[in-house]
């Protein structure tokens, strides 16, 4: 398999390096030169000539921010990529309808398409322990399986194109809900001067516990959200996608709208590139001096 990894951001680079370590031939491309250079320094072969990189590959992995970014890369006006015969593996978080539209466009261009959004972040990508949810045909899945198996312990084909994208949004909605819920409770505990560790001990022993609470507690206590693996702006994007899908099936929008509004406020306050757990600061603003 000769892989062209398009998008060398927070997820793209560790995915490409993991595949390279597992023996795949990988060439990386990124729109901005800064990330290309960082990838090269990390030991990845890169190529600034996107059409040439695609010509030399049989599999394209997309780790781009969103659907507009994918369109801008694959179908930019005035630039034709040779997609025929290639497998296009879409690993970013996009909406089900977006993924179906992309699949149709890839098929028109003679390519095969599989969506494979993932749960997990940089450490899991580096270790090959991502939770990989694939959506697409059996044949496309079989073609991608060696690669998916190098990225996740137990990749699974969960349905057709769009269904894995929907499942991923169902998961990411929980990121917002759980983080917001924990922020509310931790905020009250601290405002009341209660012992945080006592609260955590009781919480951990209860049915209400989720491991993400402990993962984010340190950041919330230190008010330090730098070095984000999953930035707030991507969770905002995912909540917007979730709301679109949920509305179509008649799910009440009250809670998703509130989470999206909170995240929007965070983005407006400049938290976009910080860890999404900076939600805590919006829910528990510092009292005025
Ligand atoms: P990221 O660090 O923000 O990287 C985004 C990538 O998209 C960069 O390569 C960026 O290129 C590229 N891009 C954005 N707009 C573009 C455009 N118009 N044309 C060309 N390239 C464009 O994001 P990430 O964390 O790697 O996430 C990638 C996808 O995976 C997202 O859909 C995200 O929701 C999903 N995801 C992320 C995580 C995570 O933990 N980070 C986990 C699961 C899923 P430039 O460098 O040129 O801006």
UniProtKB/TrEMBL annotation:
Instruction: Tell me the Pfam families matching this sequence.
Output: NAD_binding_11, NAD_binding_2
Q: Which residues form the 3-hydroxyisobutyrate dehydrogenase-like NAD-binding domain?
A: 162-282
Q: Decide whether keyword Ubl conjugation is in the record.
A: no
Q: Where is the 6-phosphogluconate dehydrogenase NADP-binding domain?
A: 2-153
Q: Which SUPFAM superfamilies match?
A: 6-phosphogluconate dehydrogenase C-terminal domain-like, NAD(P)-binding Rossmann-fold domains
For this protein, the record's Gene3D superfamilies field holds: N-(1-d-carboxylethyl)-l-norvaline Dehydrogenase, domain 2, NAD(P)-binding Rossmann-like Domain
Any one GO molecular function term: NAD binding
Catalytic residues identified in the record = 168
Q: Which UniProt keywords apply?
A: NAD, Oxidoreductase
PANTHER family documented for this protein: GLYOXYLATE_SUCCINIC SEMIALDEHYDE REDUCTASE 1, OXIDOREDUCTASE GLYR1-RELATED
**Protein name per Swiss-Prot or TrEMBL:** Hydroxyacid dehydrogenase
Tell me the organism. Candidatus Sedimenticola endophacoides
């Amino acid at each position: 398999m000769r892989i062209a990894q398009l998008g060398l951001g927070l997820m793209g680079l560790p995915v490409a390096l993991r595949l390279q370590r597992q023996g795949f031939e990988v060439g990386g491309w990124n729109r901005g030169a800064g990330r290309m250079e960082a990838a090269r320094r990390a030991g990845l072969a890169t190529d600034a000539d996107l059409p040439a990189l695609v010509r030399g590959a049989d599999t394209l992995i997309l780790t781009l921010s969103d659907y507009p970014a994918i369109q801008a890369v694959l179908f930019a006006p005035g630039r034709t990529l040779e997609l025929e015969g290639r497998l296009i593996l879409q690993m970013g978080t996009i909406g089900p309808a977006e993924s179906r539209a992309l699949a149709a466009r890839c098929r028109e261009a003679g390519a095969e398409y599989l969506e494979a959004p993932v749960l997990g972040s940089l450490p899991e990508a580096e270790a090959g322990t991502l939770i990989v949810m694939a959506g697409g045909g059996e044949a496309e899945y079989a073609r991608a399986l060696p690669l998916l198996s190098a990225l996740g312990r137990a990749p699974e084909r969960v349905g057709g194109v769009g269904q894995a994208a929907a499942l991923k949004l169902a998961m990411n909605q929980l990121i917002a809900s759980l983080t917001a819920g924990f922020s509310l409770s931790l905020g009250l505990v601290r405002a009341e001067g209660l012992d945080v560790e006592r609260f955590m001990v009781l919480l951990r022993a209860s049915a209400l516990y989720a491991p993400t609470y402990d993962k984010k507690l340190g950041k919330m206590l230190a008010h330090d959200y730098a070095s984000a693996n999953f930035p707030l702006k991507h969770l905002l994007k995912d909540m917007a996608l979730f709301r679109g899908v949920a509305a179509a099936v008649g799910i009440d929008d009250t809670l998703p709208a509130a989470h999206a509004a909170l995240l929007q406020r965070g983005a407006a306050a400049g938290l976009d590139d910080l860890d999404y757990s900076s939600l805590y600061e919006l829910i528990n603003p510092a009292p005025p001096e």
